[in-house]
Amino acid sequence: MATGSISSLGIGSGLDSNNIVTRLMALERQPLTALNQKESSFSAKISALGTIKSRLSDLQTAATTLGDPNKLAAFKATVGDGDIISASAGTFAKNGSYAIEVVQLAKAQKSFSSIQTAGTSYGAGTLSFSINGSTQDVVLASGGNSLQDVANAINDAGIDVQATVVTGDAGSRLVLTAKNTGTDNAFSLSVSGGDANLTGLATFDGAHPNASAALDSIITVEGETVTSQSNTVTSAIANVTINATAVGTSTLDVARDTSGIETAVKAFVDAYNSLRSDITAKTAYNSETRVGEPLNGDATIRTLLGRMRDTLSNVPAGAAGSDYQYLYTLGVSFTQDGTLTFDSTKLNNAVTTDFDGVVSVLNAYGTAVNDMAKAFTQADGLIDSRVSGIETSISTIDSQRERMERQFDLTEARLRAQFTALDTLVASLNTTSTFLSQQLESLSNL
């Protein structure tokens, strides 16, 4: 009465044992599903915190601009003829109008060697350039140099003269050009230790039509002559830079530029509102679905919201006592949803009335917001610390998952072993039942 072996789960018993084991394991795995959902929630929090930190960094950048008087107290330089000059004004310039004449543009010295025939070779030697009282040497260590080799050696030496080779029908020339304009950068060349060909390069062709002597720029400002080594003049008008581009006359007007303040304040308001909107979206709770966004109820974000509002609602020390110590006097006000509105007309009226006072107040608020944001955005700040805590929780989940997976494998193996034993038992009983039925049937036939 052999029972045979069970090769497929459920054959012996007639039960759908595979399906039963699968369903039992699904019940066993429910804690793992919950754990995976928890990990997904943690990952969503990290992503949301990253977005908030990025928006907060944008606010910090805008606040840095408000906190820098050099970026707010700007002046604008306007020229009458942009073909003659261009100009820029620094932070500490003064209002003024000026008549400008460019008498002479600065030039760099350009010198040409005599014509060199093809195949000319230049021996070893030293080319010494005398520039503004100092000597800059270029050494050719070996002979057999081409004219291009000489030019390359000059350029590789890193001196204040650059060299090129120009070849025409009559032959080639070595062209030497000072790297900087002005008479202080004029140069002369002498050769020592070289052969006749190398020595000949020190004799320039003064009649060449493109040769030019070093020149300083000469401009007049309100009739006063100003000489400069370059075409950029910074000494004529305090905190104003004039760039001469052509000979001729032009006017130059320097006036305070208030547009920078409006731009900076608007950028600040936009950055604040972008941050506030993202916080609202990522902390929302849907009462119908009873599902909250990743940062709903997050303590770090609640702290951030409180500090954001406090920083703009409380008067910073640098603004105390000013007629514009409150931001609403400068056109920046809170709305019911926590965002800011901006009235540029109100700001511009304040700027017209007391420019320096407005700049001082904006500097104070910008510095305060920057300091507030820094506590959250800096390395190991409040946001990084929150993220680190969440990452620790995820690591714990990973360990839990590994332990559970090992336990699930053991449980599934145990269940399959039990159902296999059941199959074997039922198969044995079925065989015995069949045998007994056959015996009884034989007895009844006697």
TrEMBL record:
Belongs to the FliD family. One of its GO terms (biological process) is bacterial-type flagellum-dependent cell motility. Homopentamer. Residues 214-430 form the Flagellar hook-associated protein 2 C-terminal domain. Keywords: Bacterial flagellum, Cell projection, Cilium, Coiled coil, Flagellum, Secreted. It comes from the Bacteria. The keyword Secreted applies. Pfam families: FliD_C (PF07195), FliD_N (PF02465). This is Flagellar hook-associated protein 2. It comes from Denitromonas iodatirespirans. Residues 13-109 form the Flagellar hook-associated protein 2 N-terminal domain. GO terms for cellular component: bacterial-type flagellum filament cap; bacterial-type flagellum hook; extracellular region. Required for morphogenesis and for the elongation of the flagellar filament by facilitating polymerization of the flagellin monomers at the tip of growing filament. Forms a capping structure, which prevents flagellin subunits (transported through the central channel of the flagellum) from leaking out without polymerization at the distal end.
